[in-house]
Amino acid sequence: MSIYLDNAATTYPKPQTVIESMANFMTNIGATSGRGAYEKALQSDMLVYQVRKRIATLFNFNDPKKVIFSLNATESLNIAIKGILKKGDHVITSSIEHNAVWRCLKTLERDIGITISVVPFKEIGEICRKYNIPFLVDAAQTAGVFPIDVKESNISLLAFTGHKGLLGPMGIGGLVINWEGDLNPLKSGGTGGDSAYEYQPDYYPNRLETGTLNVPGIIGLGEGIKYIQEIGEDKIHSKEKLLLRYAFNQLQKIKDIIIYGPKDSEKIIGVISFNLKGKSCEGVAYELDQQFGIMIRAGLHCAPSAHEIIGTKKVGTCRIGIGYFNEKEDIEFLVEALKKVNKLSEGNC
């Protein structure tokens, strides 16, 4: 028996339709998008465009050509941040950013001379709208789980990844560009069109998409989104909130457990961080995996600034990521396993 509770890293399992759609493309079409006028290449083009439209619909956006595909949210964030910022610019960012944002900003601070302010975020979209400031949102953990409306929330650029809440494969993500400002390409190269022109095209999506697209990944992502739309984001979010409430209730029954952050399912998305007193988070995760077949995350989770705030930067935490395919029984098994781990010889915290 195995239980997967690391959905904040990547969701597992994937819907069968995601797997089948990718296999079908590779078996029956297999042609590159944007690189040919023969039938299979045109089929590939149409499939990619259909996914752009599906993504635009998901985020209430009306311009599919400004849905840009990338490797993941990290690349999308780099495209946005490095494509906009120049020497002397000032950035306001939150105090709990993932390294995908923080390292990118710190590198630009060092290399080109931007300045950074770190603040707790609240109603930031309204502030950006008032002062006409581009607003970049990292939706790696929320896309597919929590309804996102780029218009209502005044989001200028939305970075997302396919392999988490959108239920798609690894290696595919994207950037929604709801902004008319200039965005310089992160990379330059072949786009399949305007090949005699010596510079990167100035129109979307070709301006920011260089090289051969990951068409199987795009198709898998499209099927993941289709699965979400058929179920409904509200239903997915409601189930995950139910499981979170149950997990908080059950975990607090464990002796010497420390739970970090709000213990309120209305204030978090699918993630609970905790430690057992006197035990290292790595040791706890190892025992859960080896003795009980339970997979969780341990460490700093690529977000050292968040751990700085909660006081765990030196020791890290255990983290469970609850997904739509988890059930109450998974939580119950985890709690019983943690009670047993608690009785094992103490580690070094």
UniProtKB/TrEMBL annotation:
Q: Which residues form the Aminotransferase class V domain?
A: 118-333
Database matches in InterPro entries? Aminotrans_V_dom, PyrdxlP-dep_Trfase, PyrdxlP-dep_Trfase_major, PyrdxlP-dep_Trfase_small
Query: Pfam families, per this entry?
Result: Aminotran_5
Question: Keywords, A to Z?
Answer: Aminotransferase, Transferase
A single Gene Ontology MF term assigned here is: transaminase activity
Q: What is this protein called?
A: Aminotransferase class V-fold PLP-dependent enzyme
